[in-house]
Amino acid sequence: MTDATRTLRALCLVLALAGAAHPAMALDTTREDVRAFAEEMERKHSFDAAWLDGVLANAASQPRIIELMSKPAESVMAWHDYRDHFLTTERIDAGVAFWTEHRGEIAAVEKSTGVAAHVIVGILGAETFFGRITGKFRVVDALSTLAFDYPPRGTYFRAELEQFLLLARDEEFDVATVQGSYAGAMGSAQFMPRSYRAYAVDGDDDGKKDLWGSWRDVIASVANYLAEHAWRAGEPVVAPASLWFPVAPGLVPGALAPDTTVKALRDRGLGFETTLGDRAPAVFIRVDGDAGPELRAGFHNFGVITRYNRSILYALAVNDLGRRIESQLPPQ
Length: 332
Prior knowledge:
- This protein has helices spanning 3-21, 32-45, 49-58, 63-70, 73-76, 79-86, 89-101, 103-113, 117-128, 139-149, 154-171, 193-199, 215-228, 262-267, 300-308, 312-327; strands spanning 25-26, 60-61, 137-138, 179-180, 238-243, 260-261, 270-272, 281-289, 292-299.
- The protein is of the alpha+beta class.
- The chain has a five-stranded antiparallel sheet.
- β8 (281-289) and β9 (292-299) form a beta hairpin.
- α8 packs parallel to α13.
- The chain is globular and about 65 Å long.
């Protein structure tokens, strides 16, 4: 077991114990904000009042969800630990097996959308370990907790709760049994409800958008999400980089998406190789590697991956995991 894995497991244990100390409580449906939400759903979307009251009364507000939301791995782990958590032998081997089994579907989706196969596979590996870890929280509990008991992002999660109820009606889900992450993300692709409704695809043409049971739907949906967020076919995600000068004060890391150009980064002292032109969008990336700062240049498609998860570390892990899996694929 790596130090990164021990760190992550220790963090999860601490958060689990904290959640156990504050047990879940039924959502108070008499609260003004809860009532206002229910009335809006009835007015805007013609939900049956009795059904909706039953759904909300059955929801539980869970302090553990708030604990987890307040301490995501991206905010407490250095890049070398975060990377080592995802780029394990077990996950890479699982990725090779997954890609080999679904090679035809992945290739077809890559051809039709232009989205790089290694990124599709990297996302599925990072999100759910290729469907092994899809979350054990009831989605109605997660979204209700964050919608009404997590003020920093209450507005966002009330909108997601709205979308979840609409999704359940559209796809005929059982609201009481659908499970997902502590943030309410669902299925092997970990789509939030709004994204599920907007970007999920019926890849196997069976009339359903099933992100739990159909890998054709899952693969097509991940690619569709990235394509709809302006993925550029054939363009790179990142390139390794180094400084031309001992000090480069003009290079400032931290942006999630390109905030300058290839030429501007080079003019400020960053050396890297790319076939992209001088005017191509680019971003300077600096993270904590094993032996000190690790530098990269990110490009347009790097920013597209951060639309899936708003994290520099996540986008790097997705790209690196996908590339590592790709390098170990057996010949066709």
